[in-house]
Predict the structure.
Amino acid sequence: MKNSWFHRMIWSYIPIFLILCSFIFFIFFNMLSEQQRKNAISANRVSTSQILQTVDVSLKSIDTTVVNDLMNEPIYLEFFYQTDLHDVALHYRVSKQLKLLTQQLPMVESIDLVRFEDELIFNGNLIHPIRKSEDREFIGALKEGVRLTKWTGLRKYKHYPFQEDKEVLSLVYPYPLNIGGQGGFIVNVRASALERMLEDITGSTNVFVTVRDAEGKRLFGSADDGGQRGPVMSSMTSRYTGWTIDSGMVDGTILQATSLLSDVWMVVGLFVFGLGIVSIVYVTRRNYRPLKELIAKIDTYLHKETESLGDMRSDEFFVLQSTIDRYIAKSEHIEKQIEETAELKKKSFFGELLNGCRDIDPDRLHQELEKHGLNPGGERLSVFVAEIDRYDEVFQKYKERDRYLFKFIVHSVTREIMGTDPSRVWVEWISEDRFAGILFADRPDADRREAFDRLCRWVNDNLKFTVTAGLGLEKSGWAEVAHSYKEAVQALQYKAVLGSDRWIAYADVLERRTTDRGDSLEAVALIHDFAESYRLDDPEWENKLSLFFADARSRLRTKDDLLILVHYFIYYLDLQITQLPKEYGQLWKGKALPGLLDAAKRLDTWARMEADLTDILHDFRAHTLRLREEKSHCALLKEIRTYVEEHYANPDLSLDYLSDRFEINSKYLSHLFKEQFGENFIDFLTRKRVEEAKRMLLEASHSIQEVGDKVGYPNATTFRRAFKKVVGFSPVDFRRHGESS
């Protein structure tokens, strides 16, 4: 057969391929020009970033120098809080300091100090009223509280009427710093100095740089000379000043030509792209005809199936794919149903054997077992039942998918450990927390016991839970499988007493049970003895509780028997507690009794039951003791608080002092005081003393030392420290602010 279809496809698409390859060369040259343009923009962006950084550093240097001078020179504090207009010495020192500061900052035109209290302005040479200043409108805005940015925009400035206006940028500080109210500190920076610095940085005549303030107004930089400026290539805004720096090429002819060339290539590319689409459509329609005829034939044979596809029948490949997929899906579904049916039949057969619901015909039984992949061999067999310990508690945090995975792991590990040949062990899950297995007796009993030890140990080491297994007696035929199963379930009932994470053989339990059955009347007597001791708060109640649990453990009772015993324990204890006062009964019904009933529902092992019940009873006992103590100490605590409020001025007043006076342990008193009043004793006493001290400082003319003595602080340092901790500042500052207000 000649590859005519192959040759037709090759010679149909080769011309299109050559056209697209040619266009790729054009795209390559276009990308080169575009890369040049991007490089120019990137270089401009780097230059703009350096300019912005230089301007910020220069302005921040001025800002930092001025702030350090304001904070470290006390002469400014004297000036702003001094109202003597004729203090020549002060004015001379301020003038000298301003000249030193100006010499450190060569860009600064002048520094003005504005004092609001007497409305004066001082520039280091002349002091005169604000109303006569040429800068009075700007200062007036500062005084009226108009919010000014730290660095203002470009503005006209002159200090004397005969001077010409100069363009400056002003750095404004309220005084005191960050608070204001006393005046202002205005630093005027020459715009020409910044512009010269900008020219020194750029240097090149091919680049323009323009600086605009936060409102978009031009501050300084290159002007647009006759429209020769090109487009802005990069623009950056300073986080410090809010100024924006725009930059670009003065003559943007090269970039414009590159952009125009890029547009031309784009038009050419679109044309070639359209030509390629038309060619592909034409070639595809011509080569589609044989495929169309094939689809028509398939549609004729599969007419009934494709009718259900509706409008999608127009998609021929969809018809082919959907038809094949439907047949594959049907095949997989049938296979899955067969597997699930076989698994359900196997589990059902397993359950019938364990529950004795199936007639045993040896021949048919062997055929059924072999069909499920099992090799029973001889007639000696035994059954075990294993359950996951504390299933509800452990598995409630896992999703259904994770639970299934754990069960699959346990199932697989059990088959591997219990027999070297998996066909000699039959294991199935019989409930959410239990799985059972039939062991074909081809190995000694000692080896089987060792296998159970290995199973329990492996689960404990590798999974986040444990299992406990019960093993029935070995039987001589399939008719007795149900008896072995019942024995295994019965052995598992003794897990509560014997413990979890182990295996329990029915033979061992049967031997002990026949010689150690015990009498329930003795357990009831122990319950009565404990309940009465607990109600009377006898110190021996814990020993009696331990004796009850030890006795039940020694009797080897089943889980059902233990549940009956626990419920009677709770019933009789509840009967005794109801004889206590009403408030104790409410506490018992509200918390302790529900906790005991919940613990009974969770009965897994007797040791854990003992721990849960002991914790609940200890907690209830602690609450009842607290109730008794609260009743006896409430009145005493009120008396102690009244005493402290009346004798707070006693410098010897302390917890030890109160302990001796009221005959109560100091640490216990501190605990009761905090619990009753919600505040530490020391904090309460300190707050009371400081409140009285505040009243005395405002209403009396006593000295600080005298006030401290009167409120119980003979040591002045201790008084100041305590006062500042509560109020936030010293007694002297408190009195000063109080007098000024």
